[in-house]
Amino acid sequence: MTKETTIRAARLKDAEKIFALIHRNSDLLVPRSVGNIVENIDRFLVAEIGADIVGCAAFQVHPEIGQPESATVEIVSVAVRAPYRRQGIGRLLVEGVADKVSAFNPKEVLVLTFAPEFFTTLGFHEIPKKKVMHKLYTGCINCAKHADPFTCPEIAMVREVR
Length: 162
Ligand SMILES: CC(C)(COP(=O)(O)OP(=O)(O)OC[C@H]1O[C@@H](n2cnc3c(N)ncnc32)[C@H](O)[C@@H]1OP(=O)(O)O)[C@@H](O)C(=O)NCCC(=O)NCCS
Fold this sequence. Notes:
By secondary structure, this protein is α+β, with helices and mostly antiparallel strands. It contains five helices and seven strands. The chain has a single domain (6-160), classed as Gcn5-related N-acetyltransferase (GNAT) (Aminopeptidase). The protein has a seven-stranded mixed beta sheet with strand order 1-2-3-4-5-7-6, with helices on both faces. The longest helix has 14 residues, at 89-102.
C-alpha cells in the first residue's frame, strides 16, 4: 500500500473530483451528477494522496417495505484511479464504507459489480440476482445499457455483517 494514502470522509469541495473518478469509469459504474454527489456527500469516503483524490466509495440504503431492519445496504461508486490500483486503496475504501455502515447493523452489505475477483478477496460471495429484486426495481429497471438485469454481466455479491 502507498504509505501516504489517507482515507477520509468526503468534503463538498471534493465533489467534482469524485464526479471525474466515476465518469472515467462510466462503463463500469452507475453515472452520478455533481448535484447527486453533493446531496449524498455524507455517504462518500475518498482516498487522498497529497492534494490528489485518487479513489472514492459510497453507500446507498434500499428499504424493504414493512421490514425496515431488512433494508439492503449497497456499497456503490467504488473507483481507484488507474495508476494507483493494486496498492490496497480499493480495499481500504470498501472496508472504510463497511465500517461506517456497520453502525446501522444491517444483515449484510451488497455490491453489484463487474469486478467480482476484487470483492471475493474482501470476503464477498455471489448471490442470485433474484434475491435483490428491490434493487433491480429501483436501479436496474432504469438502466440504459442492458435491457434485462438477469442477462447483464454485473454480478450480485454480499458479505454478512450480523
Ligand atoms: C476494482 C477497483 C476499485 C480495485 O481497486 P484497487 O485499489 O486496485 O484494489 P486493491 O489494490 O485494494 O485490491 C485488493 C485485492 O483485490 C484483488 N483485485 C483487485 N483488482 C483486481 C482485478 N482487476 N482483478 C483481479 N483481482 C483484483 C487482488 O487480490 C488485490 O490484492 P493484490 O493486489 O494483493 O493481489 C479498481 O480496479 C477500479 O477502480 N476499477 C474500476 C471501477 C470498478 O470496477 N469498481 C468496482 C465496481 S463496484
